[in-house]
């Protein structure tokens, strides 16, 4: 049997590490996981109640493929009041998670031979999605010295006639970089004159420790007309399993996305849409406490990591990951085996330290590993103890 070319996708290293950690746990081995990409808080009670109510009220049927009108309206209001972005409801599409939103956008835009610029380190799924759509991911390598951010000069050097789009992700998974308004506007000023699309993945917008979230689409009408803003309820409301994301952008693109979605997956889950409506329509009183807790863990973990010889960790400004440079540990040996890269180090830490991390290679940065601090402070403290012990 011959599979289609588009099935030739790199397996997700994140999922692979998670699976191995779960397998060890199932065998009774006590593993602390720093691999999770989701908040460890429960979905707020009123959101759960709205989901249950939707079931009891038999809101369990197909909805319009682009989502229920009330939810699109709630997203419209959110984008207006929180992000300063005005859209019509016909410029909004509800999708089955922000991952689906990114994929939909690429699916309707990218053709064979198109290039899509992705700043590296990047979220694991972007390059594979581009490839599935027949495009070529083109990376702009950032560095910790430059705060893991790209500049106007980087764009100037990279954009060419094949460039179809760029994917921006601020706050960034995995680096935690948060672009300032000035930094984004400098990019926007340059991009204004270029015929290409900006896909702005803003799912971590509420998890910020330093600075504030700005959407690049606010720069000018011209930029807004070429930007696809993507967000969702997964990270802000701890609703990763509910699978609701949303897309806002130019009407013609949103219409194409709705057509595509209508045939590919149909409407996002009706029950989750009602739960997301409750989430978006009520004040996010719980968030301050969550971010405070994340910050406490972050400060601890960054301090601990930087106290280890061979490890250097920048302080993330957003999201819930640290992304230390661990290349100073490469070359060390154990049991006659040399650790040469982030994958070997991650497996070493899992098998010998009983902690699960994600190799930086998954994000296009083999000198790093990613640790999520979306796990209890108790786990963070014990995990750091194990890490230090395993590396000693
Ligand atoms: N974008 C980024 C940068 C992410 O890190 C994630 C999840 O980890 C997503 C999108 C997908 O979120 P969702 O759960 O809404 O599909």
Which features would summarize this protein structure in a list?
392 residues; alpha/beta; Aspartate Aminotransferase, domain 1; Aspartate Aminotransferase, domain 2; 2 domains; 7-stranded mixed sheet; 3-stranded antiparallel sheet; 40% helix; binds pyridoxal-5'-phosphate
Blueprint of the fold:
Blueprint lengths: L12 H14 L5 E2 L11 H12 L12 H15 L8 E4 L2 H12 L5 E6 L4 H8 L3 E6 L10 H7 L4 E7 L11 H11 L5 E5 L19 H4 L2 E6 L12 E4 L2 H14 L5 H12 L3 H22 L14 E2 L10 E2 L2 E2 L3 H12 L1 E2 L1 E2 L9 E4 L4 H15 L1
Parallel strand pairs: 1-12, 3-4, 3-5, 5-6, 6-7
Antiparallel strand pairs: 2-8, 7-8, 9-14, 10-11, 13-14
The site of pyridoxal-5'-phosphate (PLP) has 13 residues, from helix 4.
What does this structure look like?
- The protein is α/β, with parallel strands linked by helices.
- It folds into two domains: 5-42 and 286-391, Aspartate Aminotransferase, domain 1, CATH 3.90.1150.10; 61-280, Type I PLP-dependent aspartate aminotransferase-like (Major domain) (Aspartate Aminotransferase, domain 2).
- It is built from 13 helices and 14 strands.
- The strands form four sheets. The protein has a seven-stranded mixed β-sheet, sandwiched between helices. Strands 9-14-13 form a three-stranded antiparallel β-sheet. A two-stranded parallel ribbon has the order 1-12.
- Helix 3 runs parallel beside helix 10 (270-281), helix 4 packs across helix 9 and helix 12 (342-353) crosses helix 13.
- The relative contact order is 0.17.
- The structure holds pyridoxal-5'-phosphate.
- Pyridoxal-5'-phosphate is lined by residues 37, 97-99, 123, 169, 173, 201, 203, 232, 234, 240, 245.
């Amino acid at each position: 049997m011959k599979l289609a070319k588009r099935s030739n996708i790199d397996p997700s290293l994140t999922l692979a590490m998670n699976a191995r950690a779960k397998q060890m746990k199932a065998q009774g081995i006590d593993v602390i996981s720093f691999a999770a990409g989701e908040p460890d808080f429960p979905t707020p009670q009123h959101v759960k109640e709205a989901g249950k109510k939707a079931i009891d009220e038999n809101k369990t049927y197909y909805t319009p493929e682009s989502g229920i009108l009330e939810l699109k309206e709630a997203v419209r209001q959110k984008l207006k009041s929180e992000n300063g972005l005005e859209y019509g409801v016909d410029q909004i599409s509800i999708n089955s998670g922000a991952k689906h939103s990114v994929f939909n956008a690429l699916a309707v835009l990218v053709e064979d031979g198109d290039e899509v610029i992705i700043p590296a380190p990047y979220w694991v799924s972007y390059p594979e999605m581009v490839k599935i759509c027949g495009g070529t991911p083109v990376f702009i390598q950032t560095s910790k010295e430059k705060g893991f951010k790209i500049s106007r000069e980087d764009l100037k050097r990279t954009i060419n006639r094949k460039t179809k789009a760029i994917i921006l992700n601020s706050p960034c998974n995995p680096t935690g970089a948060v672009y300032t308004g000035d930094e984004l506007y400098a990019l926007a000023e340059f991009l204004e004159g270029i015929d290409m699309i900006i896909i702005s993945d803003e799912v971590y917008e509420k998890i910020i420790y330093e600075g504030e979230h700005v959407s690049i689409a606010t720069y000018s009408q011209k930029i807004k007309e070429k930007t696809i803003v993507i967000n969702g309820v997964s990270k802000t409301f701890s609703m990763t399993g509910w699978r609701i994301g949303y897309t806002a952008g130019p009407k013609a693109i949103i219409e194409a996305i709705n057509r595509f979605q209508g045939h590919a997956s149909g409407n996002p889950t009706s029950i989750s849409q009602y739960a997301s409506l409750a989430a978006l329509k009520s004040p996010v009183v719980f968030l301050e406490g969550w971010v405070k807790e994340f910050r406490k863990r972050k400060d601890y973990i960054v301090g601990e990591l930087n106290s280890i010889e061979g490890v250097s960790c920048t302080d993330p400004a957003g999201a819930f990951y640290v992304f230390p440079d661990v290349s100073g540990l490469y070359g060390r040996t154990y049991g006659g085996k040399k650790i040469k890269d982030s994958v070997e180090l991650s497996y070493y830490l899992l098998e010998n330290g009983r902690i699960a991390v994600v190799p930086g290679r998954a994000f296009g940065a083999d000198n790093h590993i990613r640790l999520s601090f979306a796990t209890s402070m108790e786990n963070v403290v014990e995990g750091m103890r194990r890490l230090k012990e395993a590396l000693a």
